Sequence to fold (401 residues):
Amino acid sequence: MNNFTYYTPTKVVFGKDSELQLASLLEEFHCKKVLLHYGGGSAKRSGLLPRIENILSEANIGYVSLGGVKPNPRLSLVYEGIDLCRKENVDFILAVGGGSVIDSAKAIGYGLANEGDVWDFYKKVRMPNACMPIGCILTIAAAGSEMSNSSVITNEDGWLKRGCNTDYCRLKFAIMNPELTYTLPEYQTASGCVDIIMHTMERYFNQAENMELTDGISEALMRTVMENAKILKKDPTNYNARAEVMWASSLSHNGLTGCGTDGGDWASHQLEHELGGMFDVAHGAGLSAIWGSFARYVYKDNLLRFAKFAVKVHKIAASGKDLTSLPEEELDALALAGIKAMENFYHSIDMPTSLHELGVDVTDAQIEELAEKCSFHQTRTIGIVKKLDKADMIEIYKAAR
Fold:
């Protein structure tokens, strides 16, 4: 078991009509003017935006609005938000939406609280030392950004998708009403469920001597999301299923499922970030499209872990309770069966397991570019289960075609 620090300062207000507590939450921070930041899809379809505006007006809290956040949030809109907030003397940012809106809000918060170009923080030239206070009303259960320290932004100049992780950007509060996710399209719900599961899988697949408690939480979380994703495919307004998925979204990415590990692998995310940057695909769908090929490429480097995933998450029977006593041939068969079972689940909720199914038919030249960018021009490797260099990345992208 590794040493760890677990830090989750975000206040969570969860349940039906929880958005009605917005004014009292904002008053705790004595804010005078709020940036109301949103995408435009689910927030508008649910009628949520007008309700928020009424709440702010009745509480005599000023606000300005900036919509238009895209699924892979753009740096150009971040710059626009920074300029607007400075012009309007905004002192609090309220994100209304999912991970993309929250990530964009975090980037705006960094830009307001620090000198210089905010993109410097994402290309790792320097690190921020502050962030404007941020809260959210969650309308999409997926990224877990409402309780994480991460933000991912896409720069249209070169279509680079990069992240910045610091505790400065952690939200002051997250309002989470599962009813606000009822209007999500089926594809977006399914893609969000993949993202949630993958945040836990990235931490679960590692090379550490893991804590059984953390493993048990991770395994239960993955099973819970898989079960409820299938329910939501048939019954999208099932409150209990929406609530399970929404809470799993936060727990999957707030650090809990990584306690005691080495931090996890994250290669699938890095590989997908380049797909998102180049082809603007939904993040969860990109992850499901790449994961099987990644897993088959690396599984022998931690065979026992992949076998445990098959047994504990997918309930595939082993010949003995103690996996460490099984012959390598059986561990290998279990590992491959677990990978296949995961892909079968993705298909059961209409998620892709290849780039072609994702709607992306990549050329060799594009794969070369993807790997070149993912390796930061051959200056880094990715992954923990197996260290992957540019040549490895090329092979995984090819296998995923």
About this structure: The beta strands are 11-14, 33-38, 62-66, 92-97, 134-138, 150-155, 160-165, 173-176. The mean pLDDT is 95.
